[in-house]
Amino acid sequence: MMINRRSLLRRGAQSAVSLGMSSVVPFSLLGSAGARASDDYRAVVCVLLAGGADSYNILVPRSEQAYAQYQTRRSDLALSRNDLLPLEGALDGVSFGLHPAMSSLQQRFNAGQATLVTNIGPLVEPTTRAALETGNVRLPLGLFSHSDQILSWQTATPANRAGTGVGGRMLDAMPAANAGLALAGNISLSGNNSFQAGAATGSYAVSAADGVRRIAGYENDVFRRYFDRFLEDPNTSTLRRVYGNKVQSAIDAGDVFNSALEGATALSTPFSEHYFSAAMKRIAELMSVRESLGVTRQTFFVTYGGWDHHEDTLGQQADMLPALDAGLGQFQVALEELGLSQSVTTFTISDFGRTLTSNGKGSDHGWGGNAMIMGGAVQGGQLYGHFPEQVEDNPLDVGRGRFLPSTPTDAMYAEISRWMGVAPESLGSVLPNWANFEGSTQGAGLMGMLTG
Amino acid sequence: MKQWVVSLIFLVLVGCGGGGGGSSAPSGPAAGSGSGSAPTSPTPSEPSAEDYEAAAVMLDLATFGVTGESLEVAAKIGPDDWLDEQFDTPPSYHLPIVYRYGSEYGYDVLNGAIPPALYRRFAFFERAFTAPDQLRQLTAYALSQILVVSDSGALGVNPVGLSSYYDTLLEHSFGNYRDLLLAVTLHPSMGFFLSHVNNAKTDTAANTFPDENYAREVMQLFSIGLYELNADGSQKRDVQGNPIATYDNEDIQEFAKIFTGLAYDSTNREPQFGRNQPVFALPMVMFNEYHEPGEKHLLNGQIVSDGQTGLEDIDDAIDNLFNHPNVGPFVGRQLIQRLVTSNPSPEYIARISAVFADNGEGVRGDMKAVVRAILTDEEIADASRVREPFRRYLAAGRALNIAPAEGYKYGVTGYIVQNLTGQMVLTAPSVFNFYSPFYRPQGGMGLISPEMQITTEDTAIGVTNVMANLVYGDAPMATHPELSPVALNLEPLVDLVDNEDVFFDQLDRLFFAGNMSDFTRTVLSEAMAELSSSPNEEKVKLSLYLSLISPEQAVFGGVQ
């Protein structure tokens, strides 16, 4: 298949000119020529558990007293202590276990390749309940609201809607990383998202089920010729140009992807048929053609939704967590097959943690929760952050067991950004609020989670 | 997704005896509910080109798609009379179609049998393609993206839940928003989707509290939104210049108490609180012994007193929300975005808010007045909106007289458009719909375009493949041809193709709201010239295909 690079370049230039911008291109499809050495490759995979996963039933205290507190607070939502999968080690003197569905995570944790960051969530600056109650602190917009907190987690700018996300800004901060198809820096398995929106970098959407879609139907060449003609309309409007450019870049980049994917590694690692596993398999395949795409730093984004368990939390988690655990575990095996286990870090985010207390059927919207991180570079076998004592008078409890986060999202993202290769002096451009936490106990407990 | 589709097909084929029932006549899209086909008032002269263009704009905005016939009618009587007739046309409901398929294939739906979920798709498409009450069907569709339920869990399995919910939207589309809000609150599909069915009062012994889910979303999404608004949709600001939250988490917990005590009704025995079998065709019923006692604090300092029944509490709470000044601008802006334009001016929103506040006869929340005002506003001339991929499919289907292929007795399922674009009625990923009403695409000069949020590299190609599939019936794209092969009737267009100007005029009115640019006309003409020796049907197909994939057609209005 012919790779229409001229067309790619032409589109990039044309859109910049037609938007009346001299230097700012919305995103450039092609960077400068010349690929970087292939062994210098790093990628992160952001798994969004959309809906607000009840992560206080994914990570559960096992020590006798701590479990008793958990059981009291969670009442009908409490897992049985005997069912928990034990994690080695302890945090602040308390031992922990995982939800019984999370056996791959348990195995990787105990092998030192996975961890969880406890009670993490969006914050703007160091925050206490007292400051919260007096209104004497800047807070994330729309606390406890799905649409707001799902953005807060993806952007790490919870007090404003800047329009860019952590992944997009990470690649913005490393402009030399992707010399080939720059559009392939951020690849989404779940459509447009805020995590991958950058000021200079865009994202490319791939179907988890069908991969990179080809123009189908009758007479492709007619389509191409006339679609090109339509784009030459000198009097078109902004929205028509935005739409037309999206189709055009999809066609052109699709050529590059499809051509590259002809050289994809046929993975021998078995993946299950669940949507999430299929998406993780696509990601592994796309990573195997990173050299053809000319990329050395990538982010991947995939949504596994349906975690808003106001009802039947125990049953729905028992249904849904096995697919999460299987997908994460299978992906890690595939990375080993590709020789990329040290080069890829996978982490979960979610709208929010949930109330510890029950509504009689499930749990409601909370704030801090527990994030999972997996990969060869993870210094696993221990937990990070601070797990809140699950008692009614915990000063972090802002109502019904909604925990004020002990650790800001920025702390985890700072670790990830540094590991990806963002220079210390550029960290502020990726995480503008991170400096607010300097010298604070909130966020100080995380350094060293990733190495290598 | 694919697995799920395949298993549904299996369910239908097995459940319906492999389609071997045989004796029934093909059930192509039947005429709506039998009444209300728009009568035309006689006019002395033939409609002018301007009449056709005015009709094309109105039909493009106010129906699921322009058809040759509707164009003739609307051009003759004019947009205003056409609107009047639409408001007077009785609703064509969806549930009767589910029951019709149910009885045809041996499901005793009225006695609790659960028919295949596909039937609600057949019902939707039959109505969208052929029902005479197009404006009502479309208004309900717009409302289905504000008052969202989706096909998860039991709602993905039982067609009664979603069809009955859609019928509730249809019933109130031209009624009062307050009645709509109450009906939606009590609808079992919403109770299931936002979990306020079987929501019990506080139990201190068990350490459980009322479910906050519905309390939050009815405020955030269905009525007032997160921040105090001016009538023109702009945010009010406090002295520091910050937006002012409409409620806090204590308000959520108070409203959560209001929405306790509701459970499914029952058709054949005494209903019970907490019973698991959903009965989707009847409103939920109140069990006062499970309703939170005591007074509750509503917004703006209003208090409901102790000792009321649960339904009295809900009534008061719905009134409290409905009378909040945010509802007009909050709901009005989104209806404008669904029906007309993505970036309405503050003045447009303010005009709609004013009609919402008072229809001219002192009535607040009159949806008929609101819809009429939205569709007759002066700003329509400046409208710009990326068309929803799902509605592009519907409009193409309507214009081309789509129907199940000869010999097939099932209706249209919509799987092709859903698989390729991710959009299909009542399948949003969550209560937050397919897109945010505030989404700004990259490169869009700051313009809002919600529909661009689901326009990715993947779906941008997907929607062009939908059109290829529709026009050319490309076999590899028909993922499940056994289910929904469709036939088009291109003859009315083939009859016109020899006169290129007349033919393009008709394409213009069907797909471009009478506003096709000279540029697009030139491009189509170039394409036609390539097929000068081909049969007329091939010329029609190529012009259709290119029209339907063009960026000009993909975006209503060319100003922004």
Automatic annotation (TrEMBL), chain A:
It comes from the Bacteria. Transmembrane segments: none annotated. Signal peptide: none annotated. PROSITE patterns: TAT. InterPro entries: Alkaline_phosphatase_core_sf (IPR017850), DUF1501 (IPR010869), TAT_signal (IPR006311). Coiled coil: none annotated. It holds the Pfam family DUF1501. This is DUF1501 domain-containing protein. It comes from Candidatus Paraluminiphilus aquimaris.
